[in-house]
Design a protein that fits this description.
alpha/beta, IrrE N-terminal-like domain-containing protein, 317 residues, single chain, 10 helices, four-stranded mixed sheet, Neutral Protease, domain 2, two-stranded antiparallel sheet
């Protein structure tokens, strides 16, 4: 993990870098947002966003949502309803819905550190797109709990979504910034992704050693889905897959279809995912098998009729 001094240095540099660009007025959202905004409705709640204007936060998160939703290949939907709220604990999307059925997303990003908004929101939106709430739930007096035996993989996948979105938007914005007040900011998005990827633990396990590493670490991952250092090792290798074949993102809307599989073995979890994917979108599951469990023998990888009923998101492709 990075040291507090390094994080402070990067944040200070980022604040200086972007302050110039925020002197420009806000402009209309980019064309790609306008072309896909019928797929979602995003509201930013008032509150403690630091010195950031909620309208600026919404503008940025609209672009992030449009980019990731188009990346996973959704063509039509019941229209995702999202409310974004500033909170001080940890970024997360709640299992409880809002009064109008909307997803409630908590972010801890503040002020004009826009790269952190992109990083955090991409992660939480990936949870939504991969059916995070389509698992067995239990509740107590304080909170709703979900079966989490295989949640570590979803956490790694969503970390990958954050890195991918930072780099993807960053590359786009260096060539075609969405408006003048964001000119030059693409370099900052890519720079933040590179800063994260250069952390030593993310590069500590080579591709050829991943299966052995997973065999040694799978119990720890199963026991706790939030071992970030371990999840981030997996996400580094998943990022390579997605950047070489972006169409692999289409498979994530078929994840977590079978509620009971959340606490079954990882092989059963992959089997259920495979059976939920149409043939053309099974490649990501197969590449995950090759990366982590190459000796696993899953039944009938070309199965054409899933055993489980797909969620509303999964029926859109």
């Amino acid at each position: 993990m990075s040291s507090p001094l390094c994080r402070h240095a990067f944040n200070s540099f980022a604040a200086l870098f972007i302050s110039f660009f925020l002197l420009f007025p806000l402009y209309a959202a980019a064309n790609n947002v306008q072309g896909i905004n019928n797929l979602f409705n995003l509201e930013v709640a008032p509150g403690d966003w630091g010195d950031a204007n909620p309208a600026q936060v919404k503008q940025l998160l609209d672009w992030v949502a449009a980019d990731l939703i188009s990346t996973v290949g959704l063509q039509q939907t019941e229209n995702l309803q999202l409310t974004i709220l500033p909170r001080n604990n940890v970024p997360r999307v709640l299992y409880e819905r809002g009064v109008d059925g909307q997803y409630l997303v908590h972010l801890t990003a503040r002020d004009s550190k826009w790269f952190q908004y992109v990083y955090q929101f991409s992660h939480e939106l990936c949870h939504i797109l991969s059916n995070f709430d389509h698992r067995e739930l239990s509740s107590d007096a304080e909170d709703i709990q979900a079966a989490d035996g295989n949640q570590w993989f979803e956490e790694a996948l969503c970390e990958t979504a954050s890195l991918y979105t930072l780099r993807h938007l960053g590359a786009q914005w260096q060539q075609h910034p969405p408006s003048r007040n964001w000119t030059g900011y693409g370099q900052m998005l890519e720079g933040y992704a590179d800063y994260l990827l250069q952390q030593p633990h993310r590069q500590s396990v080579g591709l050829s050693d991943m299966a052995e590493w997973f065999s040694k670490n799978r119990q720890a991952l199963t026991d706790s889905p939030y071992l970030r250092d371990k999840n981030e090792i997996v996400s580094t290798h998943l990022l390579t897959l997605f950047e070489s074949s972006p169409e692999l993102w289409h498979a994530i809307v078929h994840l977590n279809q079978k509620k009971t599989v959340a606490n079954e073995s990882f092989e059963q979890y992959l089997q259920a995912w495979l059976e939920s994917c149409p043939d053309r979108e099974q490649a990501l599951v197969q590449k995950t098998i090759e990366l982590l469990t190459p000796t696993a023998e899953l039944a009938d990888r070309s199965r054409k009729h899933p055993m489980t009923t797909p969620s509303s998101l999964a029926t859109l492709l």
